[in-house]
Specification:
This protein is mainly α and 190 residues long. Helix content is 66%, strand content 4%. Helix 2 (36-62) runs antiparallel to helix 4 (80-99). Keywords: Membrane, Transmembrane, Transmembrane helix.
Length: 190
C-alpha cells in the first residue's frame, strides 16, 4: 500500500478541509447572512490560493533542493536560485490571498492571479504527459492517464476546429498505448 505524502495531505487540507470548516463556521457559528457562493469564494481564495501558495513559497524559498529534486527531478544545484525565485512569487501570490481575508477588495486580484497560476501550471501538466502519468501513479491512480488522453483529444479537437487540427501522427502514439510519451501535432489550417 502506498504511503500518502505531505503534498497530498496539503492539497486536501487547503482545498477541501479548511474551506469546509471555514464556511461551516461562518454559517453555523457566526450566523453569517452572506450567500454561500461568496463564502465559498472567500474561503477558497484565502485557503486554496493564500495559505497553499504561501506555504509552498516558504518551502521553496527555504529549501529549494526539495522542489528541484522531488518535483522537477533536477539534481543540479544551479537550479536552486531559480526555484527560490519561484518561491518568492508563490509567497507574493499567497500573501495576497491571505490578506484578502481581512481586505475583501484584494479577493478578486488574488483569485485571478492564483487562478491564472494554477491554470497555467495545470496546462503544463496536460502537455507533459509523462509527468502526468508519473503523478497519477504516485497517487495510486495510473488509470487516470487514459482519461487525460481522452480529454486531450476532446480539448484539442474542439478548440478552433476550423483553424487548428490536432493529431498524434497515427494511432498508438500515447502513453496509454505503452509509449514513453504522447505525440502532439497541431497543424494550422488557417
Amino acid at each position: 500500500m502506498r504511503k500518502i505524502g505531505l503534498y497530498e495531505i496539503s492539497i486536501v487540507v487547503f482545498f477541501a478541509l479548511l474551506p469546509i470548516v471555514g464556511i461551516s463556521n461562518d454559517i453555523f457559528i457566526l450566523k453569517s447572512r452572506t450567500n454561500i457562493s461568496n463564502l465559498m469564494f472567500k474561503w477558497f481564495v484565502f485557503s486554496g490560493v493564500g495559505l497553499r501558495l504561501l506555504s509552498a513559497g516558504l518551502k521553496q524559498a527555504a529549501n529549494p533542493s526539495f522542489t528541484a529534486k522531488e518535483i522537477f527531478k533536477v539534481n543540479d544545484e544551479k537550479s536552486f536560485p531559480i526555484v527560490r525565485e519561484i518561491g518568492f512569487a508563490n509567497i507574493s501570490f499567497g500573501l495576497l490571498g491571505v490578506l484578502s481575508f481581512c481586505f475583501p477588495g484584494f479577493r478578486l486580484a488574488a483569485a485571478i492571479s492564483g487562478g491564472l497560476y494554477f491554470g497555467l501550471a495545470g496546462c503544463l501538466h496536460l502537455f507533459s504527459k509523462k509527468r502526468s502519468k508519473d503523478e497519477f501513479s504516485k497517487l495510486g491512480m495510473p488509470e487516470l492517464t487514459a482519461i487525460m488522453c481522452a480529454i486531450d483529444n476532446v480539448i484539442f479537437n474542439a478548440y478552433l476546429p476550423d483553424t487548428v487540427f490536432f493529431h498524434r501522427k497515427g494511432s498508438g502514439n500515447t502513453i496509454i498505448a505503452r509509449e514513453e510519451y504522447c505525440t502532439f501535432v497541431c497543424e494550422n489550417r488557417g
